[in-house]
C-alpha cells in the first residue's frame, strides 16, 4: 500500500522485528529508561521524539551485521546517557554540512565516554560499527569527489583523535593527501575536542568552530569546481550523511506517516462526505452455499496437515487471558469474615474455629477477542494462510470458552464509488473527508459457536470482496461491537499489510487523512480501555500500533507463529492490566 513512487521495498520480516526488539531492550537496559519506545526506526522517550541522525548510525546495509547492530544500540545509549539535547540544539549551526558535522562530533564524544567507562565488548561493538560504516563509505559515490573525500577525511581524523586509535591503513592511504592539507588549519580545534570531551559545553565550542571551518572549505571547493559538482549532489550520493530522518529510507516495507492538512483544517474532526451507501453485511451471504462448502473443504484438508495442538494453544491463551473473578463465598473457613449464621455455634463451642467465610475467586478469562481482517486488494495473496491462523485462534479460544468475533473491512467499490460521483455532481467541495462507501463484513459474531464460525471463515476465499481499506472506521466499529459482549476485558487484533488506503479520499483530501484518523481512533479507544494490537503481514505497523507483531510475507500458520501471536496477546494484556492498576 505504499504511496511513494519508489522501487517496491523489501518485505519487513519477523527476524528484523526481533533485532529491533533486542536493540530497544539493550538501550533500555544501558540507560535505565523503561519509557523508551520504537515506532518504525524512530526512538521516543515517552511521547517525545529522540532524533538519532549521526551518519554511521543510519546505514541500512549493515542490518545483517549482528555486531554492527549491537554497536548501533551501544552508540545510541551513549548519546542518551551523556548528551544534553537542549544544550546541543542551542548551538546547532543551520548550514547542512556544518550541522551534519557538529551533530556527528557530539555523537563521537558520547561514544568515547561510553567506551572509556564500559566493558571491552561495548568498546568493540562501537568500534566495529564505525569501521563497518567506513568500509561502506569507501564503496559509495561519496569517495568519487573532492568534497566527499574532504568530509570523509575530517570524520576519520576526529574519530582517531578522540578515541586515540589509528586510522585503518586502507583508508589512511586514500585520505593521506587531504589530511596533510587540512590538519594544520584544524589543529587547535582537534586538540580542544580531545581535552574537553568530558564537558559538553566547552567541547561544543570547538566542535562548532571545526564544523564551520569545514563548511567554508566545502564552499571554497565548490567555487573551484564546475557547476556539476555541488555539495547537495555529493551529500545525496551518500544521503545518510545529512540529518535526515531514517524513516525516509525505503529499503524495507514500513507504513509511512505525516500530518494531514485536511484533518488539521477540520480541527482533527473526521468527516465523511456521504454515508448513504455504507454497508454492514454477513460475509457468508456474498458466497453461494456450494462455493462456501467447496472453499471450506479445501481449507480443512490443509488445516489437518498443519498438525496444530489446539488444546495446548487454548491452554496458553487462557493463561494470558485468565483473571481472578469473584464467584460467591467459601463457608466453614478458619479465618475471614465471621459467618452470622454460625454465631450461636461460636458461643456454644468456643473451640470451633470454622465459623468464618471467605470470598471465593476462580480463574476465568472474562475476555472478548475480536479479530479484524484488512480486506484490501493487496491482502488477497496472503489470505489462505491468514484464514488458517484466524481459524486456529477462533477454535482454540472457543475451546476455552472465550467469546470471539471475526470481522473484516473493505469498500463496496474502487476509486470512490457512488459518493465520488455525487461529489463530482455537487460542486466538488474542498477537502470533503472520507469519500468511498465502506463495507464492514461479519464472518463470525459472538453468538455463533466456533464450529459454525470456522465454516463461515471460508468466505474470505472469495476474491471480489478485496478492494480498498478505511481502517479507522473499521476499528471504531469493531470496538463498539466488542463492547456489547459481556466481558471485563476487550481485545482487538488487527491483521493488515499496510496503511489505510482509499484512492479517492487521498486524492481529494491528502495522503495522510486516513492515517491521522486511524492514529486518533487507536488512541481514543485505548483510553476507553480497549486493548488494540496488530499483526503486520510483511510490514512494520509500529507507527500505528505500539504493540504489534510482524509476520513474514510468506509466513506459515504453524506452532511457531501461534507462539509469537500468543506472546503478543500476553504482552498486550499485561500492559493494559498494568495501566488499569496504576
Automatic annotation (TrEMBL):
Highest taxon of the lineage: Bacteria
EC number in record: 6.6.1.2
Record-level GO BP terms: cobalamin biosynthetic process
Pfam families with a match to the protein in the record: CobT (PF06213), CobT_C (PF11775)
Keywords, in A-Z order: Ligase
Start and end residues of each Cobalamin biosynthesis protein CobT VWA domain: 356-545
MF GO annotations: cobaltochelatase activity
Tagged with keyword Metal-binding: no
InterPro entries: CobT (IPR006538), CobT_VWA_dom (IPR025861), NorD/CobT (IPR051928), vWFA_dom_sf (IPR036465)
Designated name of the protein: Aerobic cobaltochelatase subunit CobT
